[in-house]
Amino acid sequence: MTNVRRQQMQFLRRFAQQRLLKSTGRGVKVSDFAEEKLKAEPGWMERGLAFTAAMAASPHWQAEPLAGSDLLGDFACRVMDTFAGEMIKHCSRPVMPPSFDATYLAPTIELLTPRASARQVTRWRRAADAVARLSESFLLRKRAAWGKPGPYTGCGPNHLFIIASSLWRIGRLLGQARYRRVAQQALRKMCDLQAADGYFPEHSGPAVGYHRPSVFGLCLYFAASGDRFVLPYIERGVEFAARALYPDLTPIETLDQRNRLHAHIGTVGGRAGAFDAAFGLTPLGRRLAQRIMPQFLDRVEQHPDQVPLSGAAIIALAALVYRDGPTARRLPTDRAAYVDRFDRDAAGIVRRDGWTVALSGYHGWGSPGNPFILERTQNISVFSDRFGLVIGGGNDKNRVDTATFDLAESGYSHYFPPVGGRVRVAAGEGKLDLDYGAAQTQLRAVIRSPKLLELHAGAMTTFGYQEDTLNLQIPVGVGGVRIDGRPIKLSKDATDPDTWPVKRWFEPIPGVRIETPGGAKFRWPHLPWNSYNIPAHTSTIGAATGFLRVSLSGGKLDERAVRIRVV
After folding, report:
1. Which of 193, 281, 399, 483 matches a 20 to 30 Å C-alpha distance to 564?
2. pLDDT tens-digit profile of 388-446?
3. CA dist., res. 388 & res. 384, Å (int)
4. Is 68 helix (H, G, I), strand (E, B) or coil?
């Protein structure tokens, strides 16, 4: 067993011991946490519980027997009984087929069949066939949209990759060639969606977070089918995923068309995504998994309650996907200094002296009525090796006043999104130019030293009366900051945003000072749009961020300088 797969199985073993099993005076039993999850209505992707338990209980995947493995296997069978009933009921209605949930269905049945009764296996296979029939019909209705981005597919393309890969494996399980045939046709055609830079777009440009499920679906398909047609697409997809990372292996949200980064300044590391551990089919993917698994092992040891069931299940699938082979010596972000360009200067990354700056000039208009399409309101993020994310956090929706450049004529006519954008990066410096039609803006980031980074910004407009602002998103949550040396409490009981004047400097955390010559305003809390909290779409105070708002005159492209110092 390779080191990475050994780590994956070690993680599952510890997760099972910490969360799914419980030691008693008489031995081991299934934990209260696991029993409660079985009784409760499973949440999004939580149905991977059966597969996680089955993998942890399987002697084939364990170097030594796990105490309580029989209990865990029987528990997995009980979960599958409930899961099968839910799937049959779900698929009897005219709804979208289960996507992420279905990835666990066939492999769990394969693992549990030797220990299950004939009645259980028959019921599980009935559920698998119900999922397959609904998935086949769903994919065929979208045949004309295969290989096209979200506006054509109706749902995000990542769902199509996941649904098709699951359909292929269910087809193999059931011996149904037609399911496998439709799945293969869909997946091969959907590979046409891949951009030259390797990503699978959801709408316009990359969706860094949802690119990962698309690649994940191809990996699951290849691991089951051996269809080498998809390997080059996997290789390019993994390469993009590895390029769009901060040094702590967190995906760069600034490049993303629809996903936020739920991070606060002061936390570095430990936020790598489980999907990235499942790319072990290429040399770079194996290196990525090699780097990520120690983080998951540490998390399950130090904070087992913070490991979601969905993440544990994806690690279990990663163990099925992983293949031995050459491993890349390093990831792109392992380099101490580099520049990277995306889509012919639509975006870029600059790294030097312990700083990483991401600039995005991507632009495009989404569907205003679709809660899952988020515009790129954020054009810059700044990451420090010592302190993590200093500026950034993510995109938002229907809040143009939070855009990096908030340009308003007469106080109410906001210009957003830009109609054009361009990024130029060189050693230690990056420049962003945005065209709003009636306005042009420029933002320049210059890394001066390990302790100093400068931002220079300005706007030129044709406006009459105007209110133009540079907004720097500050990823601070509940706690405290310092403004001009004075402590400010950020309370968990805050309901409406408050604003504080900043005359000279703002300190989001001890050791980081943001200087604003000419003054600024700090606004907190901003509760970002939550696509999945339907219908309210509100976030809790735990996801709050703030904004440092610097006024611009609209008459000069390089009028204001903001200096970020670390001590």
Report:
1. 399
2. 999 999 888 778 889 999 999 988 888 888 999 999 999 999 999 999 999 999 999 99
3. 5
4. coil
Q: For the sheet with 413-414, list strands across it.
A: 413-414, 405-409, 466-474, 545-552, 520-526, 498-502
101-144 pLDDT tens trace: 999 999 999 999 999 999 999 999 999 999 999 999 999 999 99
Tell me if 521 sits within 8 A of 406, measured CB to CB: no
pLDDT tens for 45-85 read 567 999 999 999 988 777 778 888 999 999 999 999 999 99
User: Residue 181's CB: how many other CB atoms inside 10 A?
Assistant: 14
pLDDT of residue 24: 84
Q: What is the dihedral of CA 402, 407, 413, 416, to 10 degrees?
A: -70
pLDDT of 25 reads 76
105-112 and 69-91 are packed helices; what angle lies between their axes, rounded to 10 degrees? 140
Q: Dihedrals φ, ψ of 360, to 5°? A: -125, 125
User: CB of 265 within 8 A of CB of 474?
Assistant: yes
- Host H or E run for residue 544: none
| pLDDT at residue 366 tops 70 | no
Indicate the residue type of 506.
F
- Which residue is associated with the tokens 């990831």? 331
Q: Pairing state of beta strands 505-509 and 545-552?
A: unpaired
Q: H/E element holding 361?
A: none
Radius of gyration of the chain (CA): 25
Q: What percent of the chain shows pLDDT beyond 70? A: 96
In sequence order, the β-bridge partners of residue 28 are 23
Separation in Å, CA 147 to CA 87, 133, 135, 258, 287:
28, 22, 17, 19, 29
Which pLDDT tens digit goes with each residue over 261-301?
888 888 766 567 889 999 999 999 999 999 999 999 999 99
The two tokens of residue 503 are 């005359």
Tell me the three state secondary structure of residue 359.
strand
Tokens read off for 212:
């990962």
Q: How far apart are CA 504 and CA 520, in angstroms?
A: 8
Assigned token pair, 196: 């030259």
If 0-12 CB within 10 Å is exposed, 13-18 middle and 19+ buried, where does residue 457 land?
Answer: buried
In tens, the pLDDT along 325-348 reads 999 999 999 999 999 999 999 999
Give dist(CA 15, CA 64) in Å, integer. 16
Q: How far is residue 489's CA from residue 72's CA, in Å, rounded to a whole number?
A: 47
**DSSP string covering 499-526:** EEEESSEEEEETTEEEE-TT-EEEEEEE
Main-chain phi, psi angles of 549, to 5 degrees: -105, 120
Rounded CA separation 551/490 (Å): 23
Q: How far is Cα 408 from Cα 468, in angstroms, rounded to an integer?
A: 6
Contact 108, 76 (CB under 8 A): yes
Residues 309-320 have a mean pLDDT of 93
Residues composing the chain:
567
- Residues 527 and 495: their CA atoms lie apart, in Å, by 10
Residue 94, Cβ density class (10 Å: 0-12 exposed, 13-18 middle, ≥19 buried): exposed
Q: DSSP assignment of 448-496, as one string?
A: EETTEEEEEEEEEE--SSEEEEEEEEE---SEEEEETTEEEEE-TT--S
